[in-house]
Fold this protein.
Amino acid sequence: MSNVLIIFVDSFPYQLLSCVTHLNSATEKWPIIPGFGYSVNIHAEMFGGLLPDDVGYFGEWQYNPLASPGWRIRKILPLLDALCRPYVMNRGLQYLLTRNYQPGHIMPNIRLRDLDKFAMAGKHILESPKTYPHPTLFSEFSHLNVIPIPQLPKGTRDEQLYHTGLDAIAQHHQLLIPFPDLDGFGHTYGTDALPYQEHLSHLDTWIMHLIEQFQSHYPQHHIFIISDHGMVNVTQGIYLDIEEIVGKAGNHSYVYFSDANLLRVWVRDERIRTSLYEYLLQLEYGQLVSPDERQEYGLTSKHFGDFIFVLHEGLAFEPSTFAHHKPTGMHGYHPLDPGQQAIAIHYGPQWQHEPPQRMRDVYVMMRQALNEQW
Ligand SMILES: [Zn+2]
């Protein structure tokens, strides 16, 4: 069986590889085009070759009234929403009403009157890699051990994972070590800020030590350093005026969910489909995902929205259905935008197969290495 170490760094942009010395000196490094959307989908493509159409979700939240946290109290939601006009009150009551819904997950900035529309749909592979409901590297390769992410404050987990990973190498010749923290540094501080740059530099050093440790235990090996997407600074907030132009949203007209930079719109009344389309078409700060792109990226299901709109790189909706304020850094823009490219780095015998270009190729590459018979 082959010896394979996979080091996964959440949100390591290919664009910033030149900021670190060790990893940048690797001879085999490739920019990778991520899928549309966020980690919850990109991880399915990276570890299972699965596109949104294959897993049945796009994003963490989807339009699904019956499974929504507010369905049973839907009749009083408009009244509660009207009574709680000030934002703090609206969000406070929302918190009280939803605190037992999917504990452990962030509750987005859903208005009280929309609590009967959206439900959580996406599943994070790395939360339970061996029991994910679709086939992945983790179900196929029983020897592939995944270091669990510790229950520590964000920003302090990576150092712990480095030490745990270092110790685990002697016992596991097929091992995945995740580093989840860079993502949060990017969202909170942006990529130019000192905390982000410092963390990037720590990762570079830790990963180099892990590589050396693995190489010394297993002289014959494949080592991959991979990320799921990039990260760019957000330069401008965008106010979404869809309801002012097209009319009030609702279960009987249309429904929309705006993540930081993705907008999904579900048409509930066919008579307003054209107005919605025309509204989205004339917006200057982004683009509608075309039917060809939806085919290419595995987004054809109508459950993902009749329309999917993505902001230009560096912009963010403010407020959005996800957050009241825009983040300082963000990812999830058009997969071909330069700041969105992820990384794939390989150490070992020179890679003899096609170099990877897309996230699904990274899956194929890792699967080939795990399957090698030595
Ligand atoms: Zn993120």
Summary: The mean pLDDT is 95. The first strand starts at residue 4 and ends at 9.
